[in-house]
Amino acid sequence: MKPVKLSLLLLLLLSLSLRLSPQEQNDDIVFVRKIANIIRNSNSLLYNFHFLTKDIGARLSGSPAMYNSEQWVKYQMKKAGADSVWLQPCKVSHWERGGQDSVFLSFTDNDGKTIRRKTNTAALGRSIGSGEKGLRAGIIRIDSFEELDKPGIDVSGKIVFFNPRFRENENPIDEYSKLAKYRTNGAAFAAKHGAKGVIVRSLTNSIDTSPHTGVQYYEPDLPQIPAAAISTIDADFLDQLCNDGKQVEAEIYTHGRILPDTIGHNVIGEIRGSEYPSGYITIGAHLDSWDIGEGASDDGTGVVITLETLRVLKESGYRPKHTLRFVLFADEENGLKGANAYAEMAKERNEQHVFAIESDSGCFPPLSIGLVGLASESVQRLDSLSDLFKPYGGVTFINRGAADISPLNQAFKTPLAALWSDQLQYFRVHHSTNDTFENADVNSIKLGAIDTIIMLYLAEKYLLY
Prior knowledge:
Distance between the termini: 34 Å
Shape: elongated
CATH superfamily of the largest domain: Zn peptidases
Number of strands: 16
CATH class of the largest domain: Alpha Beta
Radius of gyration: 24 Å
Largest sheet: 8 strands, mixed
Structural class: alpha/beta
Mean pLDDT: 95
CATH architecture of the largest domain: 3-Layer(aba) Sandwich
């Protein structure tokens, strides 16, 4: 009986420790309302979002737009009142699409007539060009990497068609994580078996005519072959042709060029801490984007949330206890090059990174905040304070991190928080021509900025002690 009584006592003590005094509760509510009013009554975020997506546009790593965005963000951080702002150099990938990509499907219909159908196509990132004459070969549908390894499967000289389909009623981010290998590694895996090209179904839960691009990687000792994504409408059409036993040929026309890595920059703004200046909290997002949209949802949203957080904290008169670093990371889309450079810098300087917050999940209603590395007591503390979020999206807490701040957790065991929006909507625009200002929900982005500041405020006041 004694262990049971002791456990009950500990739970009671923990419950009492989580309770706030009426004054603390009132102070929290007053602060949150203050910052929410500043954000809601200003068009700063809207104008920044419009300029980033419409005037600068897509920010492909290594492109002129990438450099333009770095200078613009640096100016905005200074304008918002950061104590210091600088550019951290790092190596970034440099690939050019080089022209309009296309894939044509040719087959014989039931009347014996030859049909040549154009698809909605985008070359995958870092895909080589097909040459002016294009690549023409028969298509073979492959359902998995395991199938390619089976005896009797011969794809030599063929174009492999991978058709990774999101399952209905499943979490889209989990489906994306599971299926992304067919985009990222499909060309290399097919080339290993002698294929001449790869067509991949766009990674989205939507059935539409928009192709979705994204990075793919070649293997050093294997041939580099053209790799393209087609829209889900076209993928379903091709899938049905395969089901019907049709012999299908494809023509692939891509124009990509892989150039040597170049120098890009993380843009870093800082507000010095009043009590623990050597303890760093990172608030960030990635600045680069793919080139076929405007980089609005991925990740213009996170960029303007980061800038708005800096602006509003300064305008509200908030004095952070820890030093706040506002970081717009370079080249996330090609493998976290900016994020890794930032973590390496922190290690070289022997810095103390106590917390990090990221937004990289789209411009839709915020639904949750992912947490990694927090003690169970801190998670319980956050749960007890969750009412502060209710007027601003009502987020729940889940166990999920984010890409650009993950190297901090790996290097320092830094606790992480990641803002997550509605992923059902996110993957409809992700890496596609639909990722534009017009398809963004600016009011939801404002809610994301409010939630980010609330999370930062609670971490400073209740978690980091």
